[in-house]
């Protein structure tokens, strides 16, 4: 449910901007590429404009396109009662839908320095980080270590366990969204460690990418999410 | 191919002789397979096994314009090298896992689907060796001879096909199922991103049309034939 709500808010906002059509009549929602709240080059030198452009316009768009296709096929299969097709589509939905969910969060997790990027978290989230990890530096170290150690493609997350009201660091493989590690987990911060997220700039040196990305992390957004959940 | 090269080394290297060269009782590295030194004395020879970074069988710019020199430099010089060095480091601390050929090591560390930490490095070393050798300058075009026959046979009669196309994730390769890899194509983003950015389709098409080494594929299938029956032998009737 959360996934659809996130996407539908986006779609409603972008509706006016002549994006692909909302087929609300049939009950099937089509998703479209959310705009970034900053220009492609504004995250330099942490992340190059070239990477941001391809990452957004090509990779994320592809996930959305394929997600929409998979959902259409799912609707057909469900209407026909074709169970093996329904189940067979799950991996395409998890992969492409997950890609859309994850990247939508990722763009909001980033901000240029003059819009708050890199500014450490204060208030509730700041205290929670100190309580759960000791300090922001320690959190960053753990995230960097987990991100560097991740084999292949995946994501590193700062998650809120909303049942235990605790913060946790998690990794997911490929485009698995955070909820695959626990339905009670809310993503505060996600860092994409697929090679496409850094290769043109950092080549094989993923640790450098991780060290630098903290300069453009938008803690304001993470704080908002956190405060809403623990309220 | 990576192979175990055992270099007898002592903790205290012999002193320099007057001519400035180290005198050693062993002049050149000897190939020692599965030999473990049981000597406990600290001053005795300690046998260690290492895997080497083999170079692709062509110059780094030989695959241009289909795969750039820069890609070869980073892919081989950084990624592949890191896997080799990582593996050797892990093996230095593992008294059990040495003396294997690389293929045996992969199967052992795959551990039937519950891989040991060394698996990733071992498999990736092998995968990349195999990948470089799956390509050649002036590659692509059509396979010929027995390989082409087998491909056509499989297409015409898919129920009895011997060849198949498999996708594996991360480091997994068909060796773990005791299958015989014929061609390997690396589709990790690092393999194509510098040259093709996100356009994996273009990269794969280019590989098939301009890079794949059908010579290597044929040699591999010939070797595989020694293990797998690819057809009934023609036994003349007396």
TrEMBL record, chain A:
<protein>
    <submittedName>
        <fullName>Superoxide dismutase Fe-Mn family protein</fullName>
        <ecNumber>1.15.1.1</ecNumber>
    </submittedName>
</protein>
<keyword id="KW-0560">Oxidoreductase</keyword>
From TrEMBL, chain B:
<protein>
    <submittedName>
        <fullName>Superoxide dismutase protein</fullName>
        <ecNumber>1.15.1.1</ecNumber>
    </submittedName>
</protein>
<keyword id="KW-0560">Oxidoreductase</keyword>
